[in-house]
Predict the structure.
Amino acid sequence: MQDSLKDKYPGASSWAFGDAPQMADALVALVISGAKTATCSAFSSYQPHEPMPQIGSYNIILDGSGAPACVTRTIALRLIRFNDVTPALAAKEGEGDLSLGYWQREHQAFFARGGTFSADMELIFEEFALIEVF
C-alpha cells in the first residue's frame, strides 16, 4: 500500500508520531478525529541529509504497527523555542486537556527520553490538514 501511496503523493514522507506503538496509535487517532492539527519536533533532530518539513508537503502517517493510517499536508511551519509555545499552539496538538501545562509536561518528558530537552530548545512547529484516511 505504501508504494501506491508514494505514487499518489510523490515526495511524501512516511512516519509515525511519538516513540512507542501505543503513542503512535493514540496520536494518529487524534488526527483522524480532527482534534490534532499540529505537531512539533526538535530542530536539532534533523540531520543535514534529512529533508525538513515544507509547506505543501504530504505526510503518510503510520499507526503503531507501521501501517498507513492517514495522509496529512503541511499548511504552516514555524521555528519556536519550547518555552515560547503559547496555549493556542499547544491546543492545536489536541492532546490531554489541551492546556499549555499538559503540553509542556508531556513534551518535556518526550524530548528528555530522546536526550534533547532544554527549555530553550528550538522546535519546528508544524500545522497540517487531514487529506485522506485509510
